[in-house]
What we know:
By secondary structure, this protein is an alpha+beta fold. The chain contains seven helices and eleven strands. The chain has a domain at 14-150: Beta Polymerase, domain 2, CATH 3.30.460.40. Helices cover 28% and strands 24% of the residues. The strands form three sheets. A six-stranded mixed beta sheet has the order 1-2-6-5-3-4. A three-stranded antiparallel beta sheet has the order 7-8-9. It has a two-stranded antiparallel ribbon with strand order 10-11. Helix 2 (32-40) runs antiparallel to helix 5 (148-155) and helix 5 packs parallel to helix 7 (176-189).
Amino acid sequence: MQQPDIEAWAAWHPREIAQRLSGLPAPWYVAAGWAIDLFVGGPPREHEDLEIAVPAQHFALVPPRLPGCDFWVPQGEGRLAPLSARTLAGESHQTWAYERAAAVWRLDVFREPHDGDVWICRRAEDHIRRPYAEIIRHTADGIPYLTPEVVLLFKAKAARAKDEADLARALPLMSAAQRGWLRDGLDLVHPGHPWQQVC
């Protein structure tokens, strides 16, 4: 199978994937930049892609909900490989969904570590764990998204301009408990990170 154009992104809106995954018998949520937009509300910023996450052991529930899509696993350096038992067992936690009829990538599904109903942070598996019930929030119309303090912990690694902007937008709306969790998480994952000073 020939790899599709890696730049051919036309991501769905979170509302589209929420409709397609409605009733999925496993926790899932919108992640990354879109999660910050759903938390903040109002007009979203521009997004190149859409990322969602599911517990790794429940990933198999997702493809049947997207029958028009082929799934590919990033292999590094712009290469992807078709979904298979081998690629699922590899190091990448990402799985891109390519809609054949439209010839575009629609979303990236993160396969996340977990222990039953407990989410495990893939960057600090021995130290950061929370029940899914604590980390999944919902918009007024029912779209599940990752709580902002966890999103920002992941964004801190790159701290690109858009990540800094997401921090600035989310922080004023976060509770003291959320800010404290983010500070503690940064101390574990990115000690001395400058974001610790503003949380």
